[in-house]
Amino acid sequence: MKNSELQKLRDKPADELRGMVTQLRDSMLKARIARSMEGKQAGMGYRAARRQIARINTILTQQVAGAPAPAAKAAAPVASAEKKAAAPAAAKAEKAAKKPKTEKKA
């Protein structure tokens, strides 16, 4: 979800957000009924509704707690990417060092 869409949700009052949750739950109920009665698949809309409800509940919890809205994520530093790339090589080297060398019999 884009940050602008999240910001629009954060700007809405709590009553409106609760109303959105109720509407989404009703649509999920209708999708479940349609699936059981008619054999229709709920599809990705069901998953999207669940995630949207979770987002709204998170925003409601933040508003109640008085927590500030989270800042946008910063780009990952290059150093951490280098460490991640070096980690498998280091583990492989340690494993080779621990492994006892066997002599070949002639």
Describe the structure.
Helices cover 73% and strands 0% of the residues. It has a domain at 3-75: Helix Hairpins. It contains four helices and no strands. By secondary structure, it is an all-alpha fold.
Short key terms for the protein model shown above:
mainly alpha, Helix Hairpins, 4 helices, about 0% strand
What secondary-structure arrangement, pairings included, does this model have?
Blueprint: H1 3-11, H2 14-38, H3 44-65, H4 78-98
Helix pairs in contact: 2-3
Beta strands, count: 0
- Span between termini: 66 Å
CATH topology of the domain at 3-75: Helix Hairpins
* CATH class assignment of the domain at 3-75: Mainly Alpha
* Beta-strand fraction estimate: under 5%
Short description:
It contains four helices and no strands.
